[in-house]
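Usage example:
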Amino acid sequence: QLQLQESGPGLVKPSETLSLTCTVSGGSINSNSHYWVWVRQPPGRGLEWIGSINYSGNTYYTSSLESRLTMSVDTSKIQFSLTLTSVTAADTALYYCARLWVGRGNYFDYWGQGALVTVSS
Amino acid sequence: EIVLTQSPGTLSLSPGDRATLSCRASQTLSGNYLGWYHQNPGQAPRLLIYGASSRATGIPDRFTGSGSGTDFTLTISRLEPEDFGVYYCQHYGYFGQGTRLEIK
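Running the assembly step on the lines above writes:
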């Protein structure tokens, strides 16, 4: 059974950089049918797709975060990562990593449990 | 940009009731590529339906997705206690704002 687990600091100061890593277990990250994504959820609010990356390092970012966002993948460690620079309180959210199945459309079929990141001084 | 609008915002029903949730897109969705997810408090979302009408692995047949073009529906035939929570529709990187299904 595929499992994803987020890790990283739970508290980041304003203007600093948020970094999270997702470790994948129980399956391969090397797939032409899947991308690996980050989705965030501010407290009490809905879901926001942030960005996607595949095993080759091809990326897609949401336009609103594109200037601050970098995603990377390490196939040897079966991990992918998120870096978000110049954070503000608006970046406070539960950050989920997930697998994106690229089939008849794109669907998020496996999710991590989420990592709460609070931006505060 | 595609906007997905879900209605109602909140639905209050009892176990055993039938639930009907709506998702309307601001433009025709290519391939009817619409997904539905369920999220319980403190848990990650779970994929229920893909391609507007196909159930994901392990999803019981009381969940039915339908619709095409811009109008889509998720129907839950007989609500079980674990079905309450928030439901989201999704098309590529776009999510609806969610419908909260609460116990009446």
